Amino acid sequence: MYQAIVFLPLLGFLIVGLFGNRLGARPSELITSGFMVVAAVLSWVAFFTVALGEHETVTVHVLRFLDLGALQADWTLRIDTLTAVMLIVVNTVSTLVHIYSIGYMHHDPHRPRFFAYLSLFTFAMLMLVTSDNLVQMFFGWEGVGLASYLLIGFWYHKPSANAAAMKAFIVNRVGDFGFLLGIFGVFVLFGTVDFNTIFANAPTYIPAEGAGEAGGAVLNFLGYQLDKQSALTVTCLLLFMGAMGKSAQVPLHTWLPDAMEGPTPVSALIHAATMVTAGVFMLARLSPLFEHSHTALTFVTFIGALTAIFAATVGLVQNDIKRVIAYSTCSQLGYMFVALGLGFYSAAIFHLFTHAFFKALLFLGSGSVIHAVSDEQDMRKMGGLRKLIPTTYWMMVIGTIALTGVGIPATIIGTAGFFSKDAIIEGAFVGHNAFAALAFTLLVIAAVFTSFYSWRLIFMTFHGKPRASHEVMHHVHESPPVMLVPLYILAVGALFAGVVFHDFFIGEVYNEFWKGALYTLPENEILEHFHHVPLLVKLAPFLAMLIGFFTAYHFYIRSPETPRRLAESQPGLYQFLLNKWYFDELYDFLFVRPAKRIGHFLWKTGDGRIIDGLGPDGLSARVQDITRSVVRLQTGYLYHYAFVMLIGVAALVTWMMVGNNF
Amino acid sequence: MLPTKGGEAHSGTVMLNGLPAVFFYLFAFVAIASAFMVIAARNPVHSVLFLILTFFNAAGLFLLTGAEFLAMILLVVYVGAVAVLFLFVVMMLDVDFAELKSGALQYAPIGALVGIILVGELIVVLGGYAFSPRLAATTGQPTPPLAERANTAALGDVLYTHYLFAFQLAGMVLLVAMIGAIVLTLRHKANVRRQDINQQVARVPETAIEIRKVRTGEGV
Amino acid sequence: MLPDLRSSIALASPELFLAIAAMVLLMIGVSVGRKATLLVTSLAIVALAVAAVWVAGFSHDGAAFGGMFVMDSFARFAKVLALAGSAATLLMGYNFIRAARFDTIEFPVLIVLCTLGMMVMISAGDMLALYMGLELQSLAIYVLAASNRDSLRSTEAGLKYFVLGALSSGMLLYGISLVYGYTGNTSFAAIAQALAADQRQLGLVFGLVFVLAGLAFKISAVPFHMWTPDVYEGAPTPVTAFMAAAPKMAAIALTVRVTMDAFEPIAADWRQIVIFISIASMALGSFAAIGQRNIKRLMAYSSIGHMGFVLVGLAANSQEGVRGVALYMLIYLVMTLGTFAFIMSMRRTTGHVENTDELSGLASTNPVMATVMTLLMFSLAGIPPLAGFWAKWYVFLAAINAQLYTLAVIGVLTSVVGAYYYLRVIKIMWFDEPVGGFLPMSGELRAVLGFSGAFILLYIVFGGPIGRVASAAAASFF
After folding, report:
1. Regarding beta strands C62-64 and A224-226, do their DSSP bridges make them parallel or antiparallel, or are they unpaired?
2. What is the ipTM of this complex?
3. B118: which of A254, A553, A615, B62 is 20 to 30 A away, CA to CA?
4. In Å, how far is A608's CA from the nearest CA of chain C?
5. B107 — contact with chain A (CB < 8 Å)?
6. Chains contacting chain A through 3 or more C-beta pairs under 8 A
7. What was the pLDDT predicted at B134?
8. Does the keyword section mention Transmembrane (chain A) (predicted)?
9. Chain-centre distance of CA B40, in angstroms?
10. What is the pLDDT of residues C22-71, one digit of tens each?
11. DSSP secondary-structure letter at C69?
12. What does B53-107 look like in DSSP terms, one character per residue?
């Protein structure tokens, strides 16, 4: 069963990837989607057996992957509760996206390729979440990176899509570099990459205080001799660097908004629900390591909070419907990292779980909108669509209330975000961490912003007067059922995932549910404490949501002039936000242009002038010169020839006389 | 400068004095001077004549060393046949040698330089030239004393015995030369009547002559 | 003397047979006339073959005619090669000269006489035999080069070769006379004896330089190579093929014999000269060929370069080096014959072509021919695992073992440069636009080309036995 879950997408990819053009578009869609449906159903079965059943961790050995001296890595599927949660997230969303794409990509001539890529991505993601060791995880990690590159650049004839694909790949390489170093570090410290062994040794790795042997240097990093505690911290931070790249955390977040150049289903699948959460999953999976490095966790909190507030502020002013959701994703990922940094792993995973539903819903809904308005993505050219595409409108509203966390505080009535996001904010309040207080403040403010930009999106798109051209408005139409049905399913998840599952993830049956898949130190009691926060704290996210909603309502329904006036009165701040805190410009100045200059220098001067000039080109030119002068000697005149012979003899004679008789 | 007498060869050098010395230097000087004139003369006919003079002086030098057979052969073959043939060729083929030489003259400085270097080295080498100390013992075919065996006879002694192989090969070389001359020059032209001795010999009166009765006053 | 004569004649019987055969063929030709060319050619090939079998299987070692004629395993090796090369060119050339209308009966006779000259050279044990063999061989080639009397270029080639050849003969004779003057002998053994007994004499070294200059002319080594491109280009192609193959091999064998037998005691001197000539030849052969468009001219420079590589083996002055020389000569002979078989097949309805551009796209118009030619070019360039690589390998190995590192390095570098023009030919055949194919190859050319291609391709398989034969041949001098 577990093999089927993982390998059915691969099978779909191979069949459609190799024979897709011969099979035709419709069979390709049916094959990949059919396999995905089966895989998704099996994932739910696995979830019920492993997470909700009595089974402990299930391992399925596939084959011996690497056997290089001390380095041994098997290809083994490791299914525990954490993996099972990821399996249902990945396979459910992927299946829905597959089906949705049948409608959304209907006009594209390269559908077999698209579906093959989607299945390839799903397989790589499944490899990542089922990995039993770091090497295998890295394989999946790179696999999703590749698939992401291919899918962002799916419309390769668009230069912006190509640039975005490359940007995503290159920025991810930066993170991957850290991830690789982290893997090396783990191997140095523990002598293995196998999770079971690492987790078994991690608790006893740091010597007890006063044991006296803590001073031994075990790792030399950048010239620093590190003892065990520091080495573990450095390793964790390096691993987190990989997570930052993949999960678009500041400062490696720049690729995610650009990645919206890809088809919208791709954004929903990869850049909202699954791949970008790989970093969250990785940290949760490695919780036994991170839990022993307080410093690393503090740093994670800081980065998460920073990203949450940063992305939220930028999201306030964006006009591209997909970019708003992309920054929202970035921001929500920040929430998850704050939870991770606080040691509140279960809340992070819970938010990951619920976020997958409502963010995929929002993306697919926005795809439906874009589909309706003839591929227009600028919200300034929409408006008034509510009557024309009511189903999509309501789906988007459901996604928004789930994202903003609508619910009645202190009860169990609420949408998915109400449970997961509020849990994180409450966790931040009680967290024991240098940045916990700061994180709490920032997260509450970010919640205001989240609510604001989410409703802003709804109001700008669906309310008010139509700003699109008459022709476009005339063509607006509701999406076909094949696109709407996935929305319905996701909407159900967005509404009820929180209320149904919050007890399992962060509530009463925590231990029975997780069965040790997430590790926490005994002194980590955040799970106990967050239930008992002051009422005001419980109310804070709710109030934030209300403030955001009413501000948006005021700005975009009651007095549409306000935003423009505000932007004009604060031009500096507006430009700062509109230009995304100038991160791209900064990177362009710091890295891209110097790199291009160095590359240009090495290409033109280094390679062209020096290596080619002195090497192949220069040599061949000299050879030609010599050839010309030698051939010129061959005049055809007899006496020239005789002359050369005589000179030769004279030279030889002279050499023999003089050269030997000094 | 072959060692002429076995006894003198032991010292490694041959001293010339008296009348032979006078003639040696005379022949030698004229030979060199006329050889130079062969290439220096403007008129090709003069060149050939200087060449003949060179041969004569060389023959004189041969005579001084007692090689009278070689001296005579040189005169008979080179002067009597080769040089005279040259003379005919030069006179008959009206080649403008001056024109041919004109191009070569611009290389004269370099040519002179190379020549001077070679000559200088030759002088250095030959100035210190010495025969192997054990030459008498190792010489392959030493010349017998003139008093015992005439030069011509001495040559005959070795030519058909010791040097049989080389002698026969020389014959083959001449054969090739002959074939070559024929291949390169003999042309069978259709409109040239050629003598066929077989045909001539095979002629009989019946085929050669025709008898006609000629009546007086009517003609053939 | 007479008992000696009997055994001498027995020892030199293949040569005698060839001499008589040449004269008999000449008589047949003269009495039958031009109609007999095919007959005389066939008989000449038979005679050469018989002589080859005779030399290979029924001759024994020894010296004849008072040491003028030496028979040993090296001579046997070289003679078989010379006879085979001559027979092959005769076979290849017949149709060509008939098409060009100078199919005289003298052509095969001259080739037989030339081969006789080569055999004398190879077996020379005396300066006189050396000179006689050389002249016999050269004179025949002068005539052959000019044998297409109606072609201005052929005549010019013959005349140029003749005049320069006379100059080189003069140098050779001058050198011989200096050597004789010092040692009092013309016999190689006696010269070596005299040299070994005394200290180095400058005048003798002078003579050595002139002798080597005369020999270097025959093997077209720089700076005595100037005739080669013009004569190769001007002479009729079968004659060029002949000149490039057997006589060159004989001249190399002669050079080896003179240096190894006569001048062994002053090896330090002649090795310097050989190294100089070798480097100059390799360099010039590699560089000058690049500019060539006429394939015969290209092969001329190629042959100059290859002679440089052969001399690398000689410069090593070791049994290994001589073995390298022997193998190189064998492989070079086969490669050259194959290449010229190809060149003679460059024939369209409009006649023969010699420009490399005419090979454009041959791979598509005549793939088999192009493939074999590609093999040959790769082999000439020295690409493993073809025979040409092993030829170079053995001489360079010998040079390395003789501590001649600089020479070996220069050799390798120049062979890299030289690879350029061989590869260019391949590039033209495979990657340029086709300009139309050639007429089908005649049977004998196909046979020679096929044999040559198979030899260089399969040399790696049967190189062992050949190497042992060459080793035994080289042992004659050590």
Report:
1. unpaired
2. 0.92
3. B62
4. 22
5. yes
6. B, C
7. 64
8. yes
9. 21
10. 999 999 998 988 788 899 999 999 999 999 999 998 888 989 888 899 99
11. E
12. HHHHHHHHHHHHTT-HHHHHHIIIIIIIIIIHHHHHHHHHT---HHHHHHHHHTT
Specify the length of chain B in residues: 220
Q: And the tokens for A284? A: 């949760």
Contact criterion met (CB < 8 Å) for A649 and C210: yes
Do the Cβ atoms of C129 and B133 come within 8 Å?
no
Amino acid identity, residue C407? L
Please name the residue that has the structure tokens 């920040």: A334
Residue C206 to residue A656, Cβ atoms within 8 A: yes
Please work out, in degrees rounded to the nearest 5, the angle formed at the alpha carbon of residue C162 by the alpha carbons of C158 and C163: 125
Q: Which long-range contacts (CB under 8 A, 24 or more apart) does A551-560 make?
A: A551/A448, A551/A452, A552/A451, A552/A452, A552/A453, A552/A454, A552/A455, A552/A456, A552/A459, A553/A455, A553/A459, A555/A456, A556/A455, A556/A456, A556/A459, A556/A460, A556/A463, A556/A464, A557/A459, A557/A463, A557/A464, A560/A464
Which of C13, C183, C193 is best to mutate for the B interface (most B CBs within 10 A)?
C183
pLDDT of residue C407: 93
pLDDT bin (cut points 50, 70, 90) of residue A500 is confident
Q: How many CB atoms lie within 10 A of CB C385?
A: 15
Q: Across the interface, do A650 and B103 touch by the CB < 8 Å criterion?
A: no
Structure tokens at C81: 């090669």
- DSSP assignment letter at C477: G
Q: Does B129 touch chain A (CB under 8 A)?
A: no
Going by the DSSP 8-state scheme, the letter that residue C124 receives in this structure is B
SS3 C70: strand
DSSP 8-state class, residue A582: G
The answer to whether B179 contacts C109, with C-beta atoms less than 8 Å apart, is yes
**How many CB pairs below 8 Å do chains B and C form together?**
112
Question: Is residue A359 a contact partner of residue A332, using CB atoms and an 8 Å limit?
Answer: yes
Task: Read off the pTM.
Answer: 0.67
Residues with Cβ < 8 Å from A113, sequence gap 6 or more?
Answer: A17, A20, A154
Query: How far away is chain B from the Cα of A650, in angstroms, using its nearest Cα?
Result: 6
- Spatial distance between the Cα atoms of A304 and A544, rounded to a whole number of angstroms: 19
How many C-beta atoms surround the C-beta of residue B210 within 10 A? 7
Residues 94-153 of B with CB under 8 A from C: 121-122, 124-126, 128-135, 138-140, 142
Give the range among A421-430, A608-617, A642-651 with minimum mean pLDDT: A608-617
Of C222, C226, C287, which is closest to A627 when you measure between CB atoms? C287
User: How much is the average pLDDT of C168-175?
Assistant: 94
Query: Chains with ≥3 Cβ pairs under 8 A against C?
Result: A, B
Alpha carbons A372 and A385: distance in angstroms, whole number: 9
pLDDT of residue B4: 42
pLDDT over 90 for what percent of chain A?
24
The answer to whether C160 contacts A638, with C-beta atoms less than 8 Å apart, is yes
Burial class (CB in 10 A: 0-12, 13-18, 19+), B124: middle
B147 in contact with chain A, both atoms CB, cutoff 8 A: no
Q: CA-to-CA distance for C283 and A622, rounded, in angstroms?
A: 13
Query: Cβ–Cβ of B117/A647 closer than 8 Å?
Result: no
Per residue in B173-207, pLDDT (tens digit) is 999 999 999 988 887 776 777 778 888 888 888 87
Look at residues A34, A53, A129, A125 and name the one whose alpha carbon lies nearest to residue A85. A129
Say yes or no: C217 contacts chain A, CB-CB below 8 A. Answer: yes
Closest CA to A421 of A548, A581, A509, A514: A548
Contact (Cβ atoms closer than 8 angstroms) between residue C71 and residue C61: yes
Q: Say if CB A247 and CB A280 are below 8 A apart.
A: yes
pLDDT over 90 (residue C306): yes
A630: nearest CB among C209, C230, C284: C284
Helix, strand or coil for residue A75? strand
